[in-house]
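Ticket #4471: structure export looks truncated?
Reporter: QA, pipeline team
Priority: medium

Steps to reproduce: submit the single chain below to the structure queue and open the exported record.
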Amino acid sequence: MIHEMSTDHPLSAFILAGGQSTRMGTDKAFVALNGRTLLQRVLSTARSVTPNVCIIGDPARFSPFAPTVADIFRGCGPLAGIHAALHSSHSDLNLILAVDLPFVPPALLQFLRTQAEASPVANAIVPLTSHGWQPLCAIYRRSFADLAGEALRSGRFKIDALFPAAEVRAINEDELQSAGFSPQLFRNLNTPQDLAASE
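Actual output as written to the record:
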């Protein structure tokens, strides 16, 4: 099956699937939760808001499922995935979603998109809960790639460390809850115990 991305869609979505999965003990993308892999779950969620969905990860593993893009800065964590996504994108708005966030519903992604469209100056639209920033369920404009690339070249890999220099639209917990979204939706699965508890 050949997957292609449009060059003219206003929103693209990128699934970050290239992590080491050391705590899970196996590739998280292919771990099953209630009969569906985490990759199948997040692909389905992302495709509910845009037909333009791509996986950031090893093309040898992921190209059967969607178009793939490999990191330019290898082994540098999620910031490198965001950079690769934005560097490859033809869309102004780019949804970033980690493969281990299976509880994020399509409505939350649509809410983030609406906030991004209403915040044309912001180059990052990022939920901020009592547990901190949620940069792996967020929308970035392509302009954020410059900040990311500069940080990666200088050996700085922490995503939220870039936010003071960026135009960030923070969506705080009260705002999320007012829109009907619990902070628990950002729970990620890191260990077999997390997986068992979720099932």
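Status: closed, not a bug. The export was complete when the record was re-opened. Leaving a note from the reviewer for reference: Helices lie at 38-47, 59-62, 78-88, 106-117, 144-153, 173-178, 192-198.
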